[in-house]
Amino acid sequence: MSLRIAVLGAGAVGRSVVDLAEEYGHTVTAVADSSTAAVDSTGLDPDVVLERKEREGVVGDLALDDALAADYDVLVEATPTTLGDAEPGFSHVQHALERDRHVVLANKGPVAERYDDLRALEVKSEGTVQFEAAVGGAIPVLSTIADFGGEHITAARGVLNGTANFILSRMAAEGLGYEHVLAEAQDLGVAEADPSFDVEGTDAALKFVILANVLNDGGYTLADAEVEGIKNIPGSALDLAAEDGRTVRLIGEATPDGIRVGPRLVPQNGTLAVSGTRNIVQLETEYAGNLNLSGRGAGGPETATAVLSDVSRLE
Amino acid sequence: MSLRIAVLGAGAVGRSVVDLAEEYGHTVTAVADSSTAAVDSTGLDPDVVLERKEREGVVGDLALDDALAADYDVLVEATPTTLGDAEPGFSHVQHALERDRHVVLANKGPVAERYDDLRALEVKSEGTVQFEAAVGGAIPVLSTIADFGGEHITAARGVLNGTANFILSRMAAEGLGYEHVLAEAQDLGVAEADPSFDVEGTDAALKFVILANVLNDGGYTLADAEVEGIKNIPGSALDLAAEDGRTVRLIGEATPDGIRVGPRLVPQNGTLAVSGTRNIVQLETEYAGNLNLSGRGAGGPETATAVLSDVSRLE
To answer: Is pLDDT at A315 greater than 80 in this prediction?
Structure first.
């Protein structure tokens, strides 16, 4: 069945959702960026919207409220992640659920910071909330948990930030210092101009908060996570680790003891020592040992496939 | 919802399903091994059945036909995999579908050798057919494909036989010959007394045939696979590979070019070079790069979790 999608957010993920929706059998009826919107209840032409965004920096002549009021079956919330009250993303989601529409989030804020509020809204709505894209990009972490049965998973750990992983991999492989590799990552577009969200561990922590919420049916926010970043790791620590067959990765975990993210020593060729921007999630199960899922944890088309799989699951 | 399960086959997988069913909220109403059966429409006591199997080698005083005729919602087909007509497993499945019951297979035979026949029976039945346990034990390969959308997956490759992988890992790590390591694997219970199914590549090939059927909506049997085993790999080949930073693994693939299983050179610390009895499946996607799923590909409780996840998905 073809669903009508309203996409909020025209960053890499939102644009890729617009670009790929038709391929997944769906129609985009509204798109909004931070200042403008385009709406067409019979379906927007993705090329027109994307070209205008590219050329003029806007998606259309309307405003966000017009996109929120548009005809759609599913709201895709792909605006930037914000902390605390998770606004304006949370209000967008609320608006859609109160209209009995489905919501698919790529935005981590509402699911990490206001999970319980979100579930309370969902209970009163005929719409449902999905957010595979918020954890691990293209890696189907949440659907695997659902398929496996969350009650049989005892812990989740792994690498869920590609920027930090890229920096640590390069520091270890090339013997370079943090500042040098960060600058290189910024040149390559792997790190943002302000990389603090990634290198301080916040982004990874939000994902493990979401995992803790999913595994425990809510109760967690970022304030519950113990978080340490990678900025203070000297190159010499990586050299010392290497002499011992180990390396350093920014490892997160959601266990019955809580949520923690920080630099950890791991075996150099071990499962968790993925290289470059790759992500990995290890699910510790009750009866079946560890399951490892790895792949591309970020990127526009990659994350859009997770969004569109969520959309297709609604049918 | 609690479902009533009839379990055919009392090997490691069947026994673990009986053992864990209650934990997953279900009731076992019938169990059959190759010569006997136990039936109780109000629910069998798993301990009684398993102790009798352990002590006397039989599960009860009835016959297989009694188990097939029992009250159940789901038939779990966990008898040994057979090739060609895939009997008697196929007839068990047919019997259940004709009674409009669901079927969950751990037995690879019917899904690899008679996939099209199976789907034809399913279409006429109110029951459905699931078989996550037939590919990669505890690793949720098929549910990941379903969640991701099989039409967006272009190829599957990887290691789907733990015995062959154990032998190749040990040969490479210890510099020992094939016969020596095989004998060791048999002592450890990792290889069977007759290991031909595993070391000749048949078991891995059946799993890639199943993957090809899932990805292409049928059309394949074992006869379509190009299969080569690991018996003729000299230790010297592994030494040569190691000098080049590579090693040998029994790699299978299901691609648009067909199904192939055979020893291949892979990077020593690469994604596909899992060690010991671990399995890995790499799904090549259209828009999201490669997804890698690894975990325990065999074992009673591990495979039973896949069976019971399939059962729970029926609710």
So the answer is: no
